[in-house]
Amino acid sequence: MSTDPEHDYASGQGSEGVPAPEGRANLINTDYVIGQDNYTTRKFGVNVDLHGKVFSISSISVVFFVLLTLALPDVAETVFETIRAFLTNTFDWFFLLAANVFVVLAVVLIFTPLGRVRLGGVKATPDFSYSGWFAMLFAAGMGIGLMFYGVAEPIGHFDTALQGTSIEADTRAGEDIPADAQRSDSAPLGGAYADEEAAARLGMAATIFHWGLHPWAIYAIVALALALFSFNKGLPLTIRSIFYPILGERVWGWPGHIVDILAVFATLFGLATSLGIGAQQAGAGLAYIFAGIPNNDVTLVLLITGITLFALGSVLLGVDKGVQRLSQLNMGLAGLLLLFVLAVGPTLFIATSFFENLWSYTKNVVPLSNPFGREDTKFMRGWTAFYWSWWISWSPFVGMFIARVSRGRTVREFLIAVLLVPTVISVLWMSTFGGTAIEQFVGQGITAVKDADQTELKLFIMLNELPLAAITSLIGITLVIVFFITSSDSGSLVIDAITAGGKVDAPKPQRIFWAIIEGAIAIALLLGGGLSALQAMAVSTGLPFALVLLIGCYAIIRGLMDEPRPK
Amino acid sequence: MFSKILVPVDLAHLDTLRPALQNAADLARHHGASVCYVSVTGTVPGSVARTPDEYADKLQAFAEAEGKQHGQPVTSQCLSASDPVAALEDRILEAIGDNGADLVVMATHLPGHLDAIMPANGARVARDTASSVFLVRSRGD
Description:
The structure holds 2 protein chains of 2 kinds. Chain A is mainly α. Chain A has a single domain, classed as Amino acid/polyamine transporter I (Up-down Bundle). Chain A contains 19 helices and 2 strands. In chain A, strand 1 and strand 2 (about 45-50) form a beta hairpin. Chain B has a single domain (about 5-110, about 130-135), classed as 3-Layer(aba) Sandwich (Rossmann fold), CATH 3.40.50. Chain B has helices at about 15-30, 50-70, 85-100, 120-130, and strands at about 5-10, 35-40, 75-80, 105-110, 130-135. In chain B, strands 3-2-1-4-5 form a 5-stranded parallel β-sheet, sandwiched between helices. In chain B, strand 2 (about 35-40), helix 2 (about 50-70) and strand 3 form a beta-alpha-beta unit. In chain B, helix 1 (about 15-30) packs across helix 2 and helix 3 (about 85-100) runs parallel beside helix 4 (about 120-130).
């Protein structure tokens, strides 16, 4: 490959010739050359540069699972849903415990001297401005969820809490409950029977718990481990690099291949099935707002095709011009919608409840995150363990994307931005959207939001009670669609990097390939059935990845200990 | 006619760059021009180097080796980007301005159908710069 016999530029080998990275940092001394296991060729005018095993096995198994699900949708749904339910019900304690470990580690690191370590070495400078960086964190990881659950979840928990607790024979709280009885209600903790004020506070605390420190700590751990081992230790930006402190050089073999294949799997199926389900929700929203738009397969296929085309444009423009700008646009729109609801909704109620909700969250976060001896098992399994499994299965994707855009930040800065700021924003978002919906019920007696059957319509039903509903609902739909585009484009970049053995400079057609595959799987499953089946399977990867994250915690501490910590 | 020639290089694909490098060397000798070798590299570890600084050192060594062969003064500039594939053209255009280059010699592939949605980097650079651009087709394309 090299044209100069004295210099082998294209090789990372010969570490004595490797100069120190920016500032002092400690590159891991490995003989592995990034891309050494890649298959490169030029066929039909298209260059490819792929990790042979990771790409081929993940592609073949993706096709296999999609065909299997299309052939036997009912069987697949039963099997995958049973697996998912078994995992979240059996390992509920493990998910809760693991998430607590992540939160504690992330918070502690902020206050230790290790927080001074800079990702990319002492002299590294950030690649993105605060606004661009922050917008991308949100757009990749959570934006879409906040749109859908911002109204539905607070009002849902408020409702179940208000109804109080029950066991098999619908015994109300306060009566004698047999010691071994399982509760049949989904209320968080002890509920708040017939106490609207307490139910609202508890409902908001439970919602913020699911969208606050814990999910962001899950993302932060994966992202920090990857950023550290990639930017500071010189390993490729793929999930397997987290395992280096434990497996050493074996990560370049099959153990590493399996981790990376699993990450591709979780990301691709997570994204494709969310895209399909999201399109159904956006379609329902469009039909709700515009009487002329039918909520049928044609609309949905058009929606997915449109989202995929925009995502294609965005991945071609790249991180700076594509993903970053779209994310900033969306954050601007989301901010406007938030301000609007704040202004025309119950402003004073939201303002005071913001602090009350924050306090309620602080007060309840320990009992809510307690893994053992819980009475509210239905809430803990059906909501918390499910959410944790869901966040963890998304963490390879979101974590890897966050890692990639976080070079140049200190660990402290990183954790404050990835953990604390999003939590505060989630509290504000949930207080505004959920709070408005709760106030509509409590203060004005409007039951439309609370009683709506379709979760995906609750945002629009809430907006419908406010002025300018047509405009705000349209902004809501736009936000949903653009958040899908930003998830799809960042996801394609992540899958491409993993299947290219950690290379981020692989040929552009590979990104296009993955973005199209996501859309194609979504359409195939939408028309053929099986979206929720495969989504259940994607969420099932939460369990193995919970182990990966725990190893990530160990890797972070080991890795940070021998990094320079300037004053 | 030309005093500063800018040559974009990717150290991972030097084999396909040979014709462009040879032409740049010949033109530099003919015009008595200095040559600036420019690379756009990712901030994450890649196949050539594990940090942008390491890449910059390798590029400087490469430039000096080229300079020894053609005998004209050389410099090198390594630009890092979080998404090097997408940022390539913009960074090359920046480098043309930074270095005051009046000629760009860069390798390019044969035109194909995909160019409609993904134009060749060289074509994009030529479209957006006031400097002269010499696109050298790779052999065996």
